[in-house]
Design goal:
73% of the residues lie in helices and 0% in strands. It has helices at residues 3-27, 31-50, 57-84, 105-116.
């Protein structure tokens, strides 16, 4: 398995991890689940950032889209955590700022599909 294949595999499972945490969060909007999303998103960001040179041009553009979204999302998330200092069981309603970058679903799907090939 090549380095790129290993990275694509980890991205695939980290995206699934984030999706699972998001589904839990939708059921019960508490900080515990929101924090799990944050951790998965951070790992995805790290994988994209550190391995940008392994991707083809199309994947690199997708990585940049995802990273731009995560830059804004994580800054907003971290600011809210700092402001309210929630316990793990506290209600935690996080919404991105109006006008901020929406999640680039197509970019995520490009990486998910690249692993499935």
């Amino acid at each position: 398995m090549s380095n790129k294949d290993i990275v694509l595999k980890e991205l695939y499972y980290q995206f699934r991890r984030a999706d699972n945490a998001y589904q839990s969060y939708l059921t019960e909007r508490i900080y515990l689940y929101a924090s799990s999303i944050r951790k998965a998103n951070n790992r995805i960001y790290q994988l994209l950032e550190y391995n940008l040179g392994l991707f083809d041009d199309e994947q690199s553009l997708c990585a940049l889209e995802l990273m731009a979204h995560y830059d804004v999302w994580m800054a907003q998330f971290d600011q809210l955590v700092q402001e309210i200092n929630p316990s793990i069981s506290a209600t935690f309603v996080f919404e991105r700022f109006p006008g901020s970058l929406s999640f680039p679903k197509e970019a995520k799907e490009a990486f998910m599909n690249a692993y499935k090939k």
